[in-house]
Design brief:
The protein is α/β, with parallel strands linked by helices. About 30% of the residues lie in helices and about 30% in strands. It folds into two domains: about 140 residues, Rossmann fold, CATH 3.40.50.1360; about 60 residues, ACT domain (Alpha-Beta Plaits, 2-Layer Sandwich), CATH 3.30.70. It has a seven-stranded mixed sheet with strand order 3-2-1-4-7-13-14. The chain has a four-stranded antiparallel sheet with strand order 9-10-8-11. Helix 1 crosses helix 2. The protein is globular and about 55 Å long. The structure holds ribulose-5-phosphate. Belongs to the ribose 5-phosphate isomerase family. Homodimer.
Amino acid sequence: MADDDKRLAAEAALDEVRDGMLVGLGTGSTVAFLIAALGERVRAGLRIEAVATSIASARAAEGQGIIVRDFAGVSLVDLTIDGADEVDARLYAIKGAGGAMLREKVVAAASDRMVVIADGTKRVDAIGAAKLPVEVLPFARSFVTARLEALGAAAVAVREGGTDNGNLILDARFGRIDDPRALAAAIDAVPGALGHGLFLDEVDAAYVADAGVVTRMTRGAD
Ligand SMILES: O=C(CO)[C@H](O)[C@H](O)COP(=O)(O)O
């Protein structure tokens, strides 16, 4: 079951957590298993502090007795553990089904190391089938939609509800992304597009659990 695999992947990634670390907590249902398992370790004596990539993850971590620092006062994180919607052998990932990809990218960039945790349904040959979320300044909604269509998005939909940052999410369906780096650079260059779910350089390793077996993927290996 996907939930069992999410829990297994989350628990496997806990091996990377050491006493004294500042740990970045991602967002989503897989990270919820991580936060629960990390909470158990903290109650058993592990000494860490955390920063969170969403209000939901901050509340969940505090509920587990984990000390959560305001990321606004932080510039360096030791290790961030986060989920993904797709991850391939290059450790390219699409993130943001949970809507937190902008904060997730900032925290990942501040991190010495970032690892992804996922169940086997997220492991793909090449990223691109998942919808690509783009966080947008509400003022720029139509303009950014037109630019995404010009970049090849077959459909662009405004997601219901905003982000923790008070912005909108446009879900863009590209179907196939031939050149993820070119697409990421093109979206980065659109004024009003504040962030997107293409993570091409951030992920150092991934723990993917499929039917109860956890595989640790690293850069340059399948
Ligand atoms: O990127 C994310 C949130 O912005 C999530 O990590 C991603 O959507 C995976 O979520 P889940 O673990 O619930 O499948």
